[in-house]
## 1
Amino acid sequence: MSFRKWLSILGLSLLLVLFLVGGNISCQKKAEKPVAPAEEEKTIKEGMNELEGVAKIGYGKYLYVPAAQGFDVVVLGGVESGDASVLVGKEMKIRGEFSRQRPSILLADSIDVKERGQWRNIYTRTAEPVLDDYLDLRERENFQTLKISSFNKPEEWEGKGKAKIFGKLEKTTVTEAGQQKEMNIIVLSDDKGKEIGKIIVDGFTDYALYYIKKLVLFDKFWFYLNIKDTIDRKVRTKTHELFHADVLFAGLF
């Protein structure tokens, strides 16, 4: 082997060694790079629980904190303005009670928020739990599924009482007594996306509005309804508005 060829082989070998060593160091640095910890989920047990986290959604007396995954934190009395939405975005410590009689509820007993690095108590429960709009899974199972095929078939919804239906929540503008006002409607469509009809929403419970906020990433979901008056046939034929209803809950199933 010539001297020049021997030097070429030696040079290539050295480059290969340097490449391998450099790659190992690079991988090691990537592995050592700190990763921001995800918010730790708390295992909720029967009785009193303590957890820390940031509130993401709040409405009325209901609060969603990812650390209490699968549970809705209920704040009864004592919150300024009476609305849990004032707590959204705040880092907090929550002391709350879980009872198997309320399977998805964590009843807040006290809440501290972190301000300028210090914890300050901003809530202590002052009222007994009255959850008049709360619907647990067992109650939801009693809602029959509405199957509406046409706006001209009132027998498909009349007399059903409380039922659930899959649709899309929208706002529309109507004129009453010369005044324009916004109205909430649930738009129903068939499997091909063709509109079947519209349900006029007279009102929402706080629990329903809280869950609609949680479902912000979804266009359509299930509405649990208290069915009310059917729209007059002449109006129904013109507008495809089916009936009035109150929304008691909204969910993905």
Note: The chain has four helices and 13 strands.
## 2
Amino acid sequence: MIRLKTLLEQTEIALPKTYAYNGHIVMIDPISKIDYHYELNVDLIKDITVSIKTIDLKNRDITYKHPITGKLLTAELNPADISKISKQYKSIEIGDSIEGLKTADDRELLLTRIK
């Protein structure tokens, strides 16, 4: 008989430890401790790569520097997108992307694995 706690752990999605490093996002798998590096493209006028200042998946916030104006912008990530990132970040190959993400204010996001 599988204990309820074990069953819940198997079905629950563990959020990776996430932080900003040199303008990109680093996600560390909580089990294997392997790190995955991603750059973020935001559809402001057209897809542009932005410099990440802070990211917090648990609170669904991301702060990035606009490459043209230099202003810091904060966006709220959708809960469904957090789930999608948590499920896919380990399986994306270098150069491939997690697509179809949007902020709460409807800005399109693209996470591309760079390392």
Note: Residues 1-12 have pLDDT under 50 and may be disordered.
## 3
Amino acid sequence: MPGHILHAKCTCGFERELWPGASITELYVIAYSTDARDLMTIESQKAKADHLMVIEDPWLKAQRIDPYAIPSFDSAWGPYRCPSCAKDSLQLWPSGNWD
């Protein structure tokens, strides 16, 4: 099952590589940590059980609208709230796919 590689970047310097998608047995989502000071890829059932705020994979969302959509690697999705500076300045950049 496939997934996407996204690079989260904020002007404050915060960066994370995120890997939402599905393996044979698990579904992985992007979520803020329990204290909202970090962003991670986590198994969806764990995110739900821990009541974490989840960010929908924007690449997957675009593909639901247009199955043939290919993101521009020169533009990002966002803005989202940055877990480091708490401003709405975090962007998610497409970086690749995983399999």
Note: The two ends are 6 Å apart (CA to CA).
